[in-house]
């Protein structure tokens, strides 16, 4: 009989997505199924999710769940087995699942995601009767209270809980006076509980009370135990290194497949890259860039924030343009960065193209048509865009941090001679070093197309699927169920 895993998450692609968490939660179940692990995903009943499952099957009702009634419904959508928390007063809101129309956090976010964790703990304790998970995986701060509720309730049944950190920067920090409202005892406000610099942290609870903590790359697992990368939780994480591991993310290679991608005009493969020329031309038209097959076209896809190093990239644009390169960017985030990139595109027509927002089709076109993709993050737990870039032959230019360091082999002279390089790395994450990497890439593109093609083919040959990660997760889950482990 398959091992039963309950995955607790606040977003799942393709139902609702703001970032990489949704991609992971959406793709990992299929890979785990090949390891004989059956995943049931617990998530909030946002409007798009409720529409996807229809009425669903009611399996548990709550008269008062963080201030109102709720119904737990079973359903299936997007090839996922789902348990959906239908609580309209908490989740019946269109748009971003965390932010209101004003761009600020919903003020009741602590109640919304405490409710998700409370229900997860109930399921773990056996409240559904017919379904009792063997292991629970709680993703990020939104599910962080799951092991805390189990700890303070001290139930008769308590399966192992794995907390998975996708980005330590988001910790779910809220006022301490909410403890009683959240159904947690006063003793939880302590150094050995949820207390965090005078407030409470959902993620701290997830780390402290989990049986094991994973994050999304080996390098990031090391970085978060340091003062530079731990963001106030380095002491706790450093004390739990025996129970901390980094498992490198993958991408869904069924969706990200350049040979069979319906979102790009010209499919291609590692054996035949010819189609990329058509995709590059389409990308240039879409972003208003000059129609030049020989121009070095660099792309950026993702959140426009300082964490992602987009301010560094903005400062590097003059140097990039001096190399004769073109630049196309798709993303949203910090309003000042949005305005700055929009202004740069207006000042350099034909050289810079900018789209504010997110569009899945354009994201695929950028990967398929760009010669290179730049990810200059100051820190990066894993990163998925560089994995997509490898898969699509857009040579990654990345900072040497977290999962970026783990997934891209720098085009050093030795790596080029040995024909193993897949991209360009730079460190530290600074504007001068980014400019140096951009210049190195532009020079190789101009001067040695055979070497550039080798980089592309090496990237296309890289295994970026979920298979290896699924094997590691499966081994961890089974180890937790072994009494002697």
UniProtKB/TrEMBL annotation:
The record places domain Starch synthase catalytic at 5-237
Q: Where does ADP-alpha-D-glucose bind?
A: 17
Q: What is its EC number?
A: 2.4.1.21
GO CC entries: cytosol
Reaction(s) catalysed (UniProt annotation): [(1->4)-alpha-D-glucosyl](n) + ADP-alpha-D-glucose = [(1->4)-alpha-D-glucosyl](n+1) + ADP + H(+)
Its Gene Ontology biological processes?
glycogen biosynthetic process
UniProt cross-references to Pfam families, sorted A to Z: Glyco_transf_5, Glycos_transf_1
The answer to whether the entry has keyword rRNA-binding is no
Domain of life assignment: Bacteria
Swiss-Prot/TrEMBL keywords? Glycogen biosynthesis, Glycosyltransferase, Transferase
Q: Which residues form the Glycosyl transferase family domain?
A: 292-443
Pathway(s) served: Glycan biosynthesis; glycogen biosynthesis
What is a GO molecular function of this protein?
A: alpha-1,4-glucan glucosyltransferase (UDP-glucose donor) activity
This molecule's function is given as: Synthesizes alpha-1,4-glucan chains using ADP-glucose.
- Cited NCBIfam families: glgA, PRK00654.1-2
Q: Which family does it belong to?
A: Belongs to the glycosyltransferase 1 family. Bacterial/plant glycogen synthase subfamily.
Name the UniProt record assigns to this protein: Glycogen synthase
Tell me the organism: Sphingomonas xinjiangensis
Source taxonomy:
Bacteria, Pseudomonadati, Pseudomonadota, Alphaproteobacteria, Sphingomonadales
